[in-house]
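Deviations from the work plan: none for this task. Representative record:
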Amino acid sequence: MNTPSDTPPPPWAGGPYSIKRHGVSLTNCDSEPVQTPGCIQPHGALLVLRLADLTILQVSENSRDHLGLAPDELLGQPITKLVDADGAARLRAFLANEPVERNPLYVFTLPALTESGPLDVTMHTADGVVVLECEATGRGDSRIEPDYYALVKKSVTRLQLAPSVSAFCDAVAEEVRALTGLDRVMVYRFHEDFHGEVVAESRRGDLPGWLGMHYPAEDIPRPAREIFKRIWIRPLPDVSAPVMELVPLANPDTGRALTMTHCALRGASIMYVEYLQNMGVAATLTMPILCDGELWGLIACHHYTPTRFPYQLRAACEFLAQVASLQLRGAEQRESLVYRLKIDGVHNQVIAQAARDVGLMTMTEGTPNLLDGMDAGGAALYHADRWWCVGNTPSVEQLDALNLWLDERAEFLSPTRAVYATDSLVREYPAGADFAEVASGVLAVPLARRRQNVLLWFRPETIQTVKWGGNPHDKPTLTGPHGPRLTPRKSFELFTESVRQRSLPWLGVEVDAALRLRLLIMELVVTRAEQLTELNADLTRSNEELDAFAYVASHDLKEPLRGISKYAHQLLESATALDEENRARLGSLMRLTLRMDSLLDSLLHFSRVGRVTLDLRPVDLNEVVDEALEMVAARRQETPAEIIIPRALPTVACDRVRVREVFVNLFSNALKYNASPQRRIEIGWLEAAEKAGRENAPPHCQRVPVFYVRDNGLGIEPRHTVHIFKMFKRLHGRDDYGGGAGAGLTIVQKLVERHHGAVWLASAPGAGSTFYFALSCDEEGREP
Amino acid sequence: MSPLPGFILVVEDSDEDFDTVRDAARRAALPQEIRRATTGDAALGLLADWERENQALPALVLLDLNTPGGDGREVLRAVRENPRLRALPLVVLSTSDNPRDLDFCYTSGANAYHTKPVGYPAHLAVLQQIFHYWLTAVSLPGGVQLSSTP
């Protein structure tokens, strides 16, 4: 848009503007002096009178057509040249008593002076002069004047009942058309960027529909929009009729151009006329819809043949526009309430679902989901370290990058309104250009910032959703009398430019709903945390109960066991008569009691391992390994083995006693399940950065030191590896390889898991086994 | 002065386990009489009677930790809180090797803590070791004179 400083002075610089003289030279709509056009429409005559004595100062050049007198016969004359004494008195009385300042009021009807017939005279004052507009009444023909009052009353009732803005606009369009009988009546709504959209339409059945069409802001330029904040009606009964200039063009008293903002006869902007002509429109009537003093939209009426808009009709339309303006807010509130209730209803269901089911992911996976409430094209939730998407969203990589960027936004830090909403992400986030078609509009609320959990809704680029009633590119290029400007194709190009990488804006009710949903989610999370705390307390309690149970069980089970052992023994000692077979049976009985005893001991130990508090401190694992080797010394004497430690082990934070037990169990197994003539045990470790050996490691053990105990023993078949960590699960015969309760690896796993680590193995039958384990917590017992 | 050679109080609810104690005493040819209380309360009652009537106290108390009706822990505590009983040699026998029990008993003044093995020969062996140690190897308080065991 040009600014005044870089615009060359207009051709009318230094004198008043006239459409007739200067209009064709215009290139820029925003610079056209539409309020002082210097010309009127030819279907009436205009007189400018001095306020003090009602002397005629200016008159339209067509005065003879309507008043029977040429300008030179009127200029400088008192008004009584035209009206009788009664008329003049009536004018003075109106000036004195009626609110005529910038408010045209009907004063009287002049009898026919020419072929135009009787003239309705309206008067208003502006800029210190009196403006009289004289228009043919149109009542000369046989038409009966409609009952405007009854018509308007019916319309007003209908508007008051409209449940939504769209129903309201439909009612406006239909009622205005019923009132005027014009070919097409549209409600044209301005968006935030002033581009317009046809939101309601009532038209003659044979005309193409324009509903849902969008137009660039330039189609109704700023000066025209400004005028519509001040006047209630703009009639243009014959678009193509030649304009009539004022004589003289400037007020002889002041030298100024006449401000014609409120004149019904005001000559139309040359750009506007051309635009209408390009669309084939012959007559228009336009009323503004104002909301809180701002131009919300227009009631735009098109007619395809020239027509008349008599004063009575205009007054009725004007009244309807005023009522529509007053009622609109109510309809908006009704609609917004309905929309709000709808979104909240869906969101409440979504939350109830998330509370009942596994978690927040049902917000995108479930029915209903995040898209059922909010009017959006897609939604995404970052939760539990991944994205949950529904509808059309950017890719996961694009979402990741966007989330990082959002996390830095000041909006996310707000303690009360942590929300980011935009209808053009690209303006602030250039990388958004890659996915502008699905997500030009973004509405985002942070959930848990520490984990970068976030909830997002996306709106597509407007251009993707706009209905253009038939692609303008398919139509033959229309070229107006002044070149290709202001043709539908040109408009479309301007329009697409104005809405590129933009979505429809987020409504206040939507932003509020997002914030409310955020609160509901936080509440849910807090409730979950409370439940978790309770569960933890329950767990501690039941752990203690388990402890007591295991303790009592062991006591109560061992007591009869001791009795059985005792009697078996006594029987064996006393009954010398027993045969060998029965002696053997008694021997087995005693052995079984001992075996059961060892099972009970393992069970007790295992239950204790799960509950002891770890004593975490830096421990030199070389010492721990030495101690563990010492503890298996007896077995090493039975089954000697070569011990290899390729490099010194590190010092790590752990519970010395527990980790020693891990090594003892692993060493015992390595010694036990080994039939090699030369047994070998290798004890080593992988540094945090080393990759090899981690193939079977869980994700949280990928970047921590890993320790291993490798043997050249029997090895384990892959199908057995899932079983070996199970309690009392043995792969070999009860008394093979030195027996054992089968709890060693279960206890190893438990001990390692208590350190937030894991144990896994690599093995093949005959190729030995390597048991790996990681201890991934730091000194305070936290996971890294 | 109590008559020699004194007696041993066994607090034990299990008949089998008490029987094993007697077996062990017989095998060790202990001269001492073995008296039994089957509950903690009964043991405390006996001790209170003897104390009141100024009778001789046992030379040794074998205390099962998990007896019904006032368990071994209560007996242990009550004995150590009573100035006249405080010096009584008190040996805990328990099925449990729970470190918490061990800590409790030693902290509360038990003289020794033994776990009862499930196997009969091992159980006998433990008891015989106890008798040997407490009735022959160490000097006991209260001027109890014990005959030497074979």
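The longest helix of chain A spans residues 508-574.
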